[in-house]
Amino acid sequence: MAIRWGRLQPTIWAAVILLATVTAAGAEGGKTAKPSEFILLAQIALLIVVGRGLGELMQRVRQPSVIGELLGGLLLGPSLFGWLWPSAQAAIFPPSAEQRALLDGIAHFGILLLLLLTGMETDLKLVRKVGRAATTISIAGIAVPFVCGFTLGEFLPQSLLPHPEARLIAALFLGTALSISSVKIVAVVVREMSFMRRNVGQIIVASAIIDDTIGWIIIAMIFSLASRGTLDLVSVAQALFGTLAFLAISFTIGRRLVFRLIRWANDNLVSSAAVITVILLLMSVMAMITHLIGVHTVLGAFIAGVLVGESPILTRQIDERLRGLISSLFMPVFFGLAGLSADLTVLKDPSLLLLTAALILIASIGKFGGAFAGGALGGLTRQESYALASGMNARGSTEVIIATIGLSMGVLSQTMFSMIVTMAILTTMAMPPMLRAALAKLPLGKDEEERLAREEYEQRGFVANLERLLLAVDESANAKFAAHLAGLLAGGRGLPITVLHVGAEAKLAEKKRSEEQSHESAVINAAKASAEADADGGGNVDVITRAPEKAVAEAIAEEARKGFDLLVVGMARVEDRDGGFDRRIDEMTSGFDGPLAIAAARGVHLEEPTENARKILVPVSGSNVSRRGAEVAIALARLSSEPLQVVYVSTTRDKGARRGSPSMSLAREEAILKDIAATASRYDVNVATTLRANTAPEVAILQEIASSRADLVVLGVDRIQGDTLNFGSVAAAVLGKSKASVLLVSDGEVRPKT
After folding, report:
1. Do 599 and 715 contact (CB within 8 A), yes or no?
2. DSSP states along 416-485
3. What is the pLDDT of residue 516?
4. Cβ-contact 494, 538 below 8 angstroms
5. pLDDT attached to residue 17
6. Burial class (CB in 10 A: 0-12, 13-18, 19+), 291
7. What separation in angstroms does the CA of 147 have from each of 153, 609, 676?
8. CB neighbours of residue 729 within 10 Å
9. The CATH number of 34-440 is which of 3.30.465.10, 3.40.50.2300, 1.20.1530.20, 1.10.287.3510?
10. Of the candidates 156, 160, 97, the residue with the CA atom closest to the CA atom of residue 413
C-alpha cells in the first residue's frame, strides 16, 4: 500500500524539530548550571505543539482536547520519551529544581486562569433552577466515592506514602480525588452533544458545578490541615469560617463591586484590553485573600471567575479573549506538566498495576453508584439517573489539579500521583461514549420541547441578546415615557442602563425633581415590574446617570464607543414641521451606528408617562425589522392584561401587487401571523391577529390603531441612507397621524434609498 508523502510530512517535521531541540538544549544545558531561558522556551514550545496536536486529534475522535494535552505530557515525560531516550529527555526537561521552578510558575498561574475560566462558565441561575435535585445528587455523588477513596487510603501500603505518619491527610486527598467531577469536561461534552439545555443536561452540569465548588472547599480545608501537619480543630474551624465569610462577602458586596469595576474599566480606561487587566487583577487579589485565610489560591480564582461571569456586560468578548490565551498556552503547559510528572513505567510492577486497576474500579463504582442513588433521591427516572451517573464519572482536569496540589505539598507520592492521573485519563475517556448512549435514549417531554424551542429562538433574537442600554432624554414627559419603556426591556434580565441627560435645561430640571419623580426612578420601577413578570426572576437594574458638557452628537458618540446594544431616545420634540425628525434627534442619532428605539408619547402617556400600555399593537410583514419590532412588543406586553394586537400589513414594495390580485392566496401572511403568535405564547403572552394585506401599510396601521383602541404601537423600521434620520414614508405617516403612543425600532443597519 502506497504511503502518501503529505500525510508523513507533519510527523517528519515533528521529528526534525524534536532532534533540533534536543541538540540545542543539550548544548545550552552544558554552558551553565543556572536556569536557562532557552530551555524554558523549548519546553513550552514542545508542550504546546504536542499537547495541542494531540488535543486536535482527540477532538476529531470526539474526545475532550484536555485528554490530548495530558497524553502529550505523558509522551514527553518519563513514561515514553524518557524511557526510549533518557539523555534527550533529561536535556529538554532537566531535573534541576531551579529549571523546573520556571515551568512550575507558568503552570501554577495557568491553574488560576483555568479556574477563572471555569468559574466564568458557571451558571448560577442554572444551579438555582435545578438546585434541589442537583444538590442531592452532588452530595450523594461526593459522599460515596469519598468514603471509598478514604477507606482505600487507610489501607494503602506504606511504600506508596511519602510520609506514612501523615496517612490521614493522604487518605483525605485520595478520597477527594476520587469524589470530584470535572465541571469543565462535563460541560464541554454535554455542550458538544447539544444536550446542554436538556433537563437532564442542566442537572448534570449543575451537579458538577456544586461538585466542583464543594470539592474546592474540601481541598481548602485539607490544604489548611496539611500545612499544619496535625488535626488542629481550631485551625480547621478558622479556615472553614474564613472560607464561608469569603464566600458570603464575595456573593454580596463582591458581586456589585466586580461589576462596577468592570464597567468603570470599560467606560473610563482607553488602553487596550483594560477590562482583561482588571479581571486578572481581581483574580490575583482574590487568590491572595484565600491564601491569607489559610485555603488554596484556586478557590479565590474560581470565585473570581463566577463573579466575572455574572457581570451583565461584555461577558462574551471577555470570555473569547481569555479563552484563546488559556486554551493555546496555559492549558497545554499545565496539563502537559502534569503528564510529565507522571511516570507510568511504575505500572510495570504487577502489584502496582493491580492497585491502579482497583483504584479506577473503586473510583468509577463509587462515583457512578453515588450519583445514581442521588438521582433516584432527587426524583429522576432510572434512565435520567443512568445518564447523570455516566456524565458525573468524568474526572479530567479537576483530579489532575487536585493531584498536582497534593504532589506539590508532599502529601502524595510520585507513584500515587501517576496512578491518579491514569485514573483521571481513563474515566474521562470513557465518559463521552457512555453519556452519548445514555442521553440518546431519553425521550423529550412536551414542556422541555417548548422550552428548548424558546431558547433556540432567543439565540437568534434581538431582545434576548441585549447586554446594555443607553437612554438619551431631556426633561419632558416623553423622556419619562421612554425611560419607562427602557426599564421594561431591561428588567427581565437585569441589564445595566446609562441615562444620558441631554441639554443644559435637562440637567437643571433633573436636579430640581424629587427622587420619586426622576427618570432614573421610572427606569428602576419599570425594571422591577418587568423582573417580577419574568419567568426566570429577572434581576436588579444598575442605573448610571451622566450629564455631559460637550455637544450632543459628540456625547452620544463617546458613549457608543463603550459598547451599547440599543439607544433609546426620549425627547420633547420628536418631529419637525416638515414631517421629519427634530434636529436634536438627528444630531443624537448621527453618532450611534447601532439599533435605535425612538419613543413618542401620545394620549394617556403624556399625562401618565409611567403607566403600562393596556393594549399594544405591532404591525408585521415578515421582514427582519418587523420581527424585531414584534420581539420588543412581546417583551413590553408581558405586563399588559390585554392581548397583544398583531396586524399583518403589506410592505411598500408589494402593496401594488396585492391591490391588483385581491384573490391571491394569503397562506404566507397567515403563516407569519401564526409564527408571531407562537413566539408570543412562549412568553405566556396572548395574541389577537388581524390581516390587512390589501391595504397600503400606513393606512392599515392607522385603521387598526383606531379599531383596536391601542394606546401603543411598536413599529419595526428600516433606517434609510441619507443626510438626516429617515425611517421611510410608512413610519413618517404613522408617527405624524397616530393618536396612540409610538415606539420606532430599527436594527442599526443603514439601507440605500429605493
Report:
1. no
2. HHHHHHHHHHHHHHHHHHHHHHHHHT----HHHHHHHHHHHHHHH-SGGG---EEEEE-SSHHHHHHHHH
3. 44
4. yes
5. 58
6. middle
7. 10, 63, 55
8. 14
9. 1.20.1530.20
10. 160
Q: Radius of gyration of the chain from Cα atoms? A: 31
pLDDT in the model for residue 715: 92
CA 752 to chain centroid, in Å, comes to 37
Beta-bridge partners for 688: 645
Confidence at residue 617, expressed as pLDDT on a 0 to 100 scale: 92
Cell numbers 474521562: residue = 428
| CA dihedral sign of residues 311, 315, 321, 326 | positive
- Single-letter code of the amino acid located at 547: A
Do the Cβ atoms of 490 and 523 come closer than 8 Å? yes
Instruction: Outline where DSSP puts E strands in 239-378.
Output: none
User: Quick check: helix, strand or coil at residue 388?
Assistant: helix
CATH of domain 612-658+667-754: 3.40.50.620
Joined together, the cell numbers standing for residue 251 give 456573593
Long-range CB pairs of 656-662 (<8 Å, 24+ gap) are 658/693, 658/694, 659/694, 662/694
CA-wise closest residue to 474 among 392, 568, 375: 568
Walking along the chain (754 residues) 10 residues at a time, the average pLDDT comes out as: 48 57 55 69 86 84 76 82 80 78 81 79 69 81 87 84 80 83 65 67 74 71 66 66 86 87 81 81 90 76 85 66 78 78 77 86 88 85 84 72 78 82 78 77 72 68 80 85 85 79 58 54 68 57 75 78 85 82 85 87 86 87 85 86 87 47 60 84 84 84 89 90 84 89 84 69
Extents of the domains making up the chain:
34-440, 612-658+667-754
User: Which residue from 208, 137, 179 is spatially nearest to 379, judged by alpha carbons?
Assistant: 137
Question: What single string gives the DSSP state of each residue in 33-94?
Answer: SS--HHHHHHHHHHHHHHHHHHHHHHHHTT--HHHHHHHHHHHHSTTTHHHH-HHHHHHHS-
**CA–CA distance, 638 with 435 (Å, rounded to integer):** 39
The residue ranges of DSSP E strands in 571-649, in sequence order, are: 596-600, 616-620, 644-649
Cβ–Cβ under 8 Å, residues 742 and 735: yes
* CA nearest neighbour of 402 among 203, 149, 166: 149
| Interatomic CA distance for residues 419 and 416, integer angstroms | 5
Instruction: Give the amino acid at 511.
Output: K
How far apart are alpha carbons 420 and 700 in whole angstroms?
Answer: 72
What pLDDT, on a 0 to 100 scale, did the predictor assign at position 577?
Answer: 77
Looking at residue 230, the DSSP 8-state letter turns out to be: S
* Helices H / strands E in the chain, number of each: 33, 10
- Amino acid, res. 275: V
Question: What residue type is assigned to position 15 of the chain?
Answer: A
Q: How many residues does the chain have?
A: 754
CA distance 370 to 372: 5
Burial (0-12, 13-18, 19+ Cβ within 10 Å), 245: exposed
Q: Tell me phi and psi for residue 352, to 5 degrees.
A: -70, -35
For the chain, the maximum distance between any two Cα atoms, rounded to a whole number of angstroms, is 95
Q: What distance lies between CA 71 and its chain's CA centroid?
A: 28
